[in-house]
Amino acid sequence: MKNFLFLGIAIIFEIIATSALKKSEEFTKLIPSLITIVGYCGAFYFLSFAIRTIPVGIAYAIWSGVGMVLITIIGAVFFKQIPDLPAVIGLSLILIGVIIINVFSKTTGY
User: Fold this and answer.
1) ∠ CA(52), CA(92), CA(81), 5° rounding?
2) Which end of the chain, N or C, is more open, meaning fewer C-beta atoms within 10 Å of its C-beta?
3) Per-residue pLDDT reduced to its tens digit, 67-102
């Protein structure tokens, strides 16, 4: 279960890094650029702990799926990038897939 905590921390770092990437304006702004670099390093660092017992494909599916949904919400709230209906449906399907993996798959490592 500790490895899912590491995966959650990796997702948080990735969301922070991606949000800062938007603000870095192609790495022309120092502070957002540094946050982006540190955030992605932290994301991969904690992901490396998570994949000790969680299969890499499952961990990556959860990491990217949850990250996509959360960064879409952040984009809508902070950057006024409102997804249209097809995007919401697609993101919902991704989230449903992550839930199915976690609830029903025997390959998640627990």
Assistant:
1) 100
2) N
3) 999 999 999 999 999 999 999 999 999 989 888 988
In this structure, which amino acid lies at residue 58? I
Which are the contacts of 105, defined by CB distance < 8 A and separation ≥ 6? 58
User: Taking a C-beta distance cutoff of 8 angstroms, is the pair 27, 33 a contact?
Assistant: yes
Scanning the structure block, which residue is given the tokens 């969680």?
A: 54
Q: Give one DSSP letter per residue of 36-85, joined into a string.
A: HHHHHHHHHHHHHHHTTTS-HHHHHHHHHHHHHHHHHHHHHHHS-----H
Phi/psi for 33 (5° steps) reads -65, -45
Question: CB–CB of 78/22 below 8 Å?
Answer: no
